[in-house]
Every structure is written in structure tokens, then in C-alpha cells.
Amino acid sequence: MTAADTSSGPTELRTTVCPGCGAVLVATADADGRHPGASAGCWHLFQVTVGGLRDEAAQDAQTAALLQLARDTYDAQHHLPGEPAAAALRLYLERDRGQGPLAAAALAARVDDAALRSLQRPARWTTTVADLAADLDVVDLPALVGAWADATWADWAPAAAELRRAADSAPTG
Ligand SMILES: [Zn+2]
To answer: What residues pack around ion ligand 1 (CB closer than 5 A)?
Structure first.
């Protein structure tokens, strides 16, 4: 809490709705910086949830791949209209084509932004990072991230044909 929050009483926590994923979370300061299209509380919760992965990713390729999948899923849920939907493309390559997150990122980087600008983001999300964090005590993180990625890809699936065209337009090599 900062001095700016004094309008709310001590027992009444101010909440914000994330403009990207719709998660309703207690408002926090921008301690972790900001993510485009996300509330500060949502980005903070994501950073905390994957914090253990970040510590291990430098030493372990499997953890690095899981962290990349979590980031792609998060980015795909916080897509700004009019911006290239590169994260949705990465999610398509990972969940529909079965590519590894690192290979998907490399291919997505070669796709022209123009092919990804007109995509319509889903109106709602089946699962958000708030659900992920809530289940963390009973389900292990790799399983949670996989299920979250699957659900987010299912939400994006109406754009699958456009994403396939964009992926096929990428120069090889
Ligand atoms: Zn969010």
C-alpha cells in the first residue's frame, strides 16, 4: 500500500480488473514494472507464480522451455488489439503443431508482423493466472502451465486458420 491508497479503509482492499485477462486482483504498486495490456496486480502475480522457474531456467533446458510456454500463454492473454499477435502464433505452434516453445519462438520471429495485426483476440478466457496461482498448492506448476496453455489456445482457436496461414508464410531457415 502506498500513500495514494489512503482513500480505502484499512479492511477494504481495492481491487482492479486486468484489462487483458479479466482477473480481479488486489491492486498493487508497480513493483515489478508493467506488462502491456495487463494490470500491475496481474503482472505481479504472474512474476511471483513463475519466480521459481526463472531462477532455474538458466541451468535447465526443460525449465527454460516451460518458462517460455508460460510467458507465451501470458502474452497471448494480454494481447493489445492492433498489435501483432505473435504470442498467439507461438501458442498455435506449440499446442496445435506440437513444436517446442523455443522452436516456436524462433519460427514466430520470422513471420511478418503485418500477417498478425488483424487477428481478433478472444472475448473471454477459460483460465487466468489467478486460477493458476489458486491451484498451485494442489497441482504442480508444469501440469498447471500445460493446462493453462491448452485452455488459452482453445480460447484462441477461432483464429487458427489465420495463424496457420501466417506460420506458413514464414521464410524457412
Ligand atoms: Zn491479466
So the answer is: 18, 20-21, 23, 38, 42
Which three three-digit cell numbers place residue 46?
504472474
pLDDT mean over 3-20:
70
Distance 145 CA to ligand 1 centre (A): 15
- Concatenating the DSSP letter of every residue in 79-125 gives PPTTS--HHHHHHHHHHTS---HHHHHHHHHHS-GGGGSSPPPPSS-
Total-model pTM = 0.89
| pLDDT, average across residues 58-74 | 95
Angle at 120 between CA 80 and CA 173, to 5 degrees: 80
Q: Give the model confidence (pLDDT) of 25-40 as tens digits.
A: 988 777 667 899 999 9
Q: What separation in Å is there between the alpha carbon of 39 and the centre of ligand 1?
A: 6
